[in-house]
Input
Amino acid sequence: MPARQSDPSEEADLHTGLAGLPRGAERRRAQRDALTLPVELRFDAGALSGSSADVSETGLLFLTDAPVEVVVRVETENGTIEHRGRLVRGQQLGATITALAIAFEPAGERRGP
Output
């Protein structure tokens, strides 16, 4: 895949976040509740194509326009619940913990698990 020249307006969006909001600004559309349950995450993506935004000796920032689709299985006291969704953010929280943010597909768009 040939390297793509970056568009200055796209770079600005990477630094300010969605809709021009500063990073860290409240963007949640639904209330969240703290709840710890066993979860299994299955990736449907296979191989993804994209390009690098920056590269160093220790890693790179990968950009793709392809959704990283997942199936989320949540174990509750009432049984297992499955949701389809897509990975929207990943963050390393320490040497052993990685946080992955998943957006569920809207109910009308869900493909059956």
